[in-house]
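Continuing the batch. This is chain 6 of the set; chains 1 through 5 are on the previous pages. Same settings as before, nothing changed between runs. Recording input and output for traceability.
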Amino acid sequence: MSEVTRILDGLKQGDAKSTDELLPLVYQELRRLAAQRMAKEGAGHTLQPTALVHEAWLRLAEGQNQQWDNRGHFFAAAAEAMRRILIENARRKHSLKRGAKVERLNLEELEVASISDPETMLLVNDALEKFEQEDPAAAQLVKLRFFAGLTRRSTSLLPNLPAPSSARTS
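Output for chain 6:
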């Protein structure tokens, strides 16, 4: 059992000091993931990796009775929090623009990891929300890879992450 999983178990059992132990253990990894993701953002981006990690941590910590089963579950929740922050930021930027044309994108032809403009990010998010209805496991992998910057190898090492439905049927 990893140290992170041990602390998460402590949180489940109501150990208040576990929260204080968790952040130092995961902070550097969250910061690295956020920095990887933010490196793909446009040059004029106002959100910094440290701010993204702090905002994500606040959202995770304020969740009432938030419980994570293991390290993978925690990082999936962190990836989701980062995704929501980035999407909210993109929506704010997009709302400032008037008359923006919405263009359909074929995601098979799109290099997802290089998306940096707010309009495209919003389109990807809309597609991801629809995709999540069809295949939640595959959508979770997309969130981890795109929004948290995890590699294919690192997502394959996460415990209890279900395989996408296409992998389950073959």
